[in-house]
Amino acid sequence: MHAVDPAHFGNFTAGHWHAAESDQTRLDINPADVSDHIGDFAESGGPDAEVAVEAAENALPGWRDRGPIARAEILRRAGELLAQRRAEVAAVITREQGKRLGEARGEVDRALAILDFTIGEARRLNGVTTPAEEPRTLAMTFRRPIGVVGLITPWNFPLAIPMWKVAPALLAGCTAVLKPSPLTPLTAALLVQAFHDAGVPAGVLNLAQGDRPVGEALVADPRVTGISFTGSLPVGLAIQRAGAPRLLRTQLELGGKNALLVLDDADLDKATDAIVHGAFGQSGQRCSATSRVVVDIAVRDELLHRLTGRAAAMKVGPGTDPASDIGPVVAAERLTACLAAVEQAAAGGAKVVCGGTRATEGLPDGYYVHPTVLRDVPWDSEIAREEIFGPVLSVIDCDGFDDAIRIANSVEYGMSGTVFTRDPARMFEALERLEAGMLHVNRPGVGAYAHLPHMGTKASQFGPPECSPQVWDFYTEWRSACISY
Ligand code: NAD
């Protein structure tokens, strides 16, 4: 292992920070001001995955044997440390991911809520006892941790998503290698440091920074018994394919193309608030972001009037500026993708009613996009089907309730679904008919609670959902036992 150059940030293996085996690094920059260089982070490859997995494998027996209640006590200390470091961690999230400081603080709180929920579950990892077929026999089920897990995460919630994997993995008794997004390495390092400072033993939680090569190596390593992945559909499919020959256990949280339905009896003020929050909050970079508004033609013009007024008035700026309503997107590639999607939609007949361009005036050199609303978007056009992951909203006309549901369900994804109506019958019917995992009625289509399953249907998810008691079905496996006496 190489020592870490103090100017660089390394991997964390077996309780030590160190450089990548190749000594290669990658520069982390601030998307709100690209002249702000955050640091050089380890750019790992296969050999780094190998040492990290080895450390996790060595630490497994000791950690597994402690039992969940003792493990929970260590995790509780990590939560206390993170709460003390809330301001520092939130500032780092804003600096490397771009979201507004208030959003970053909210993310730290969300991560702490998830940890809190997970710790409470330590006393509820129950199995069952069941009647036996013979006398003097006890039959029961219980859970065991699955072993060494690889946790591969994206950049949009650089603290909360790693937390909602690390916390249950460790509580369950697994040991782990976290492979965060190369766009948000420092947030991941702070998370791992908090667990280390709290007393998580060496090797239980390891960090391998980098991109695809180290991710692929983790998936390919036969000592890794489970991969929990959050990210895009193409990468999720690649992981599923790579792991299939050895029946790798996977948990895949993927993309979304989420619809918010505005029916003809909707409260338009509430709907407008929800759309602005869902489409432009976190710069539209949420898997549950509202990216399609499906509006009844009876109220379309009124809704568009309100919506464009609100979107056009939003102040685009750095996340550190309290006056900013919307921060930058995370990287140059996201900026280009947003603008290209708008251009393509316009060529296909959609009308840009506000935004659609890069924001530069009075701003540092960063990746800023004006909040964008497109109207007259054909329901089956590319922009209405493909995830954009930026502040670009498509407004699609529908003619009545059945048509709204049909359009909402016409995409391959099924992450979140939202309906605005005053009619209780249509509320409940929408809950039954929308093909989405996270449903909302008369409230924004984003945001949920730490104890509710985070999940999608169709191409948005595979495997047990996260952030809920169901998560144990990923990090543990069942045993049945029959004991005669
Ligand atoms: P991504 O799929 O490009 O990358 C995700 C992670 O996978 C990164 O850490 C990346 O380095 C790693 N990776 C890339 N190729 C790999 C490979 N072949 N094998 C193993 N690992 C590999 O996603 P992203 O751009 O970081 O994040 C945006 C995507 O994440 C969007 O599609 C979004 O919808 C999705 N997302 C989903 C949820 C959810 O809960 N469903 C939450 C947030 C983000």
Task: Give the name of the CATH superfamily of the largest domain.
Answer: Aldehyde Dehydrogenase, Chain A, domain 1
Please name the CATH architecture of the largest domain.
3-Layer(aba) Sandwich
How helix-rich are the residues, as a percent range? Answer: 25-40%
Give the distance, in angstroms, between the N- and C-terminal Cα atoms. Answer: 53 Å
Structural class: alpha/beta
Query: Which band does the percent of strand residues land in?
Result: 15-25%
- Sheet with most strands: 7 strands, mixed
| Largest sheet, spatial ordering of strands | 15-16-17-14-13-19-20
Ligands and ions found? nicotinamide-adenine-dinucleotide
Mean pLDDT: 97
Would you write up a description of this structure?
The chain is of the alpha/beta class and 485 residues long. It has 2 domains: 6-254 and 460-484, Aldehyde Dehydrogenase, Chain A, domain 1 (3-Layer(aba) Sandwich), CATH 3.40.605.10; 258-450, 3-Layer(aba) Sandwich (Aldehyde Dehydrogenase, Chain A, domain 2), CATH 3.40.309. It has 14 helices and 23 strands. It has helices spanning 46-64, 68-84, 86-97, 101-120, 160-172, 185-197, 212-220, 233-243, 268-280, 300-312, 332-347, 401-408, 424-433, 472-475, and strands spanning 8-9, 11-13, 16-18, 25-30, 33-42, 129-130, 137-145, 148-152, 175-179, 205-207, 224-230, 249-253, 258-262, 290-296, 351-354, 372-375, 392-398, 413-414, 416-420, 438-441, 457-458, 461-462, 476-484. It has a 7-stranded mixed sheet with strand order 15-16-17-14-13-19-20, sandwiched between helices. Strand 8 (148-152), helix 5 and strand 9 (175-179) form a beta-alpha-beta unit. Helix 3 (86-97) crosses helix 4 (101-120), helix 4 (101-120) runs parallel beside helix 5 (160-172) and helix 9 packs across helix 10 (300-312). It is globular, with a radius of gyration of 23 Å. It starts with 7 loop residues before the first strand and ends with a strand. The structure holds nicotinamide-adenine-dinucleotide. Residues 152-156, 179-182, 211-212, 215-216, 219, 230-232, 235, 238-239, 253-256, 287, 387, 389, 454 line the site of nicotinamide-adenine-dinucleotide (NAD).
